Task: structure prediction
Amino acid sequence: MEQAKVAIIGCGNLGISIANGLLGNAAYTGPELIATRRHLAPLEALRARGVQLSTDNREAAVYADVLLLGLKPYNVVSVARELVEVLDPKRHIAVSLATGITVADIQQAVGPDIPVFRAMPNTAADVRASMTCLSSTCTDPAKVQAVQQLFAAIGTTLMIDEELMGSATVLGACGIAYVLRFIRAMVQGGIEIGFDAESASLIVNQTVKGAVELLIERGRHPEEEIDKVTTPKGCTIVGLNTMEHHGFSSSLIRGLVASADKIGH
Ligand SMILES: NC(=O)c1ccc[n+]([C@@H]2O[C@H](COP(=O)([O-])OP(=O)(O)OC[C@H]3O[C@@H](n4cnc5c(N)ncnc54)[C@H](OP(=O)(O)O)[C@@H]3O)[C@@H](O)[C@H]2O)c1
Result:
């Protein structure tokens, strides 16, 4: 079967990450992708890898089968509406990446016959390690599979109820920033106790990766692994408890809930 063509309409930060991730798969050599935005200069690196570029969203929609709407929430609906005349229900699938815009909003813009999905990936799509939550009212298993396969090419996918999409934004998309801030803080601590920044980053990055791989590959619970490294009266438990006395878990949970409140989940 021929590879479905993908248009990234409004190809900004997230769109470029998705394009880079897809291009890391053998199935995507370049011409299967078309990317649009009004100012094309930031996309020249994609053009060099064979991706088609255009400032014309309709031209991109005609070229492609799956339309990833990577626009900001405030203009995703108006741009989707512009595409209506060229959309074909037998061929096209619309996938909105916009936070807070519902399937119903997009459906109203593109018409009742076009399958509509919401996807909430994160910027780790760039290295094919995105966590992408998906939701849709589409009941055609082939269309659902096509969208799942597309995002599986850039990481892990999970179908969820649409009412959880706001929470998915916080946990998965904002979550990248929380984790990176945690990593940065650990590196700063590492520098204070004697390492240069480069060595501290190497140690912290690999330590975080190792911790995550223990959970994913072995299916372990975090506390089970923590118990293994906390010797009674030892340095790890002293450090952990000091962090907790200063509100470590509480601060993280409160921040997460504040983000969710801001989204109005
Ligand atoms: N960043 C994340 O981690 C993340 C994660 C999940 C979901 N999201 C969602 O993804 C969407 C994009 O986020 P982002 O961070 O990638 O934003 P972004 O970098 O601003 O990308 C949006 C792009 O849309 C283009 N654009 C604006 N008007 C257009 C038009 N009429 N036609 C075609 N292109 C147009 C802009 O480029 P020009 O100015 O050149 O047109 C811009 O590059 C948002 O809705 C956000 O909620 C983001």
